């Protein structure tokens, strides 16, 4: 993970709603600061793409309270679309998963400020939002109190023992887990990203699912050309040349689905996907469901 501080310190102080005031900046290092990109899309992107609207009331509330100016992120329309698309796909997958396993646990690795439990809470399941200390401090200041079924964990998924650090109780592991890791792995070094997949495959109970988004290898080292990520100082470090690489970290891993964002662009997107696939072996931006 990168550690260059890019933003000035100005922490929020209480969870009470605040009026929109002069734009602030956040006390986050480069990679954690990328959480503002999906937050902006989910809070204010519905109007740009009504057919992909998420209706994320939590994101809107958080953004109002933070008072940060995200207009430059909203101007990056392709990224807003990517985020809304992946959010809806993961939300739909979560609903289907918890319909099959109503008492199961969900875990969001590198959760940023996202709030899937607003949609996935069925009254019986449990959700864990996990991220680096600086992000979890921000969440603590912004979010409503926790409950036994909505938990937070301070977690560095580059640590070799991160799975153990989650301290999942026996009842969580007695059934399949629903795990999300979106907008995260591309910022890790390749060995670290593979280790995250391998840890999931080693420890998750049979039937568990992991949703990850993936970039092609050719994006690595080129974050400066990305309209939103380029502003943060974060760099893309992990990408893949072929979908099979997603399962190469562990024999238990299976690639169940790989969606391309091109599906949002209709026949034009599918045509472009078919054109570039022989060259880069992957969708330009994909969302994978892995299973064990
Ligand atoms: C682009 S944001 C995505 C946030 C969230 N998943 C979403 O979609 O809104 C990247 C997130 O990955 C988190 N992250 C990066 N490296 C991490 C690590 N080693 N352990 C845990 N989280 C990490 C950052 O702190 C940040 O919240």
From TrEMBL:
One of its GO terms (biological process) is methylation. This is Class I SAM-dependent methyltransferase. Keywords: Methyltransferase, Transferase. Pfam families: LCM. One of its GO terms (molecular function) is methyltransferase activity. The lineage of its organism: Bacteria, Pseudomonadati, Pseudomonadota, Betaproteobacteria, Burkholderiales. Residues 1-21 are annotated as: Disordered. InterPro entries: Ppm1/Ppm2/Tcmp (IPR007213), SAM-dependent_MTases_sf (IPR029063). Gene3D superfamilies: Vaccinia Virus protein VP39.
């Amino acid at each position: 993970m990168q550690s260059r501080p890019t933003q000035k310190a100005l922490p929020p102080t209480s969870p009470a709603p605040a009026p929109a005031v002069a734009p602030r900046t956040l006390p986050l290092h480069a990679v954690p600061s990328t959480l503002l990109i999906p937050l902006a899309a989910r809070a204010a992107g519905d109007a740009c793409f009504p057919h992909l609207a998420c209706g994320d009331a939590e994101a809107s509330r958080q953004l109002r309270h933070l008072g940060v100016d995200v207009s430059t992120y909203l101007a990056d329309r392709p990224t807003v679309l990517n985020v809304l698309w992946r959010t809806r796909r993961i939300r739909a997958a979560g609903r289907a998963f918890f319909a099959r396993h109503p008492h199961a646990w969900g875990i969001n690795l590198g959760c940023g400020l996202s709030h899937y439990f607003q949609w996935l809470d069925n009254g019986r399941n449990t959700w864990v939002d996990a991220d680096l200390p600086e992000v979890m401090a921000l969440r603590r200041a912004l979010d409503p109190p926790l409950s036994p079924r909505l938990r937070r964990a301070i977690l560095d998924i580059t640590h070799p023992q991160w799975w153990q650090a989650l301290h999942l109780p026996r009842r969580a592991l007695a059934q399949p887990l629903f795990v999300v890791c979106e907008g995260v792995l591309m910022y890790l070094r390749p060995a670290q990203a593979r280790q995250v997949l391998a840890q999931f495959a080693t420890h998750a109970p049979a039937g568990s699912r992991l949703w990850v988004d993936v970039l092609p290898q050719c994006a690595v080292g080129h974050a400066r050309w990305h309209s939103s990520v380029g502003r943060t100082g974060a760099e893309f470090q992990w990408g893949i040349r072929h979908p099979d690489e997603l399962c190469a970290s562990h024999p238990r891993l299976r690639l169940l689905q790989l969606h391309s964002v091109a599906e949002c662009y209709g026949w034009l997107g599918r045509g472009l996907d078919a054109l570039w696939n022989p060259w880069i072996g992957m969708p330009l931006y994909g969302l994978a469901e892995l299973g064990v």
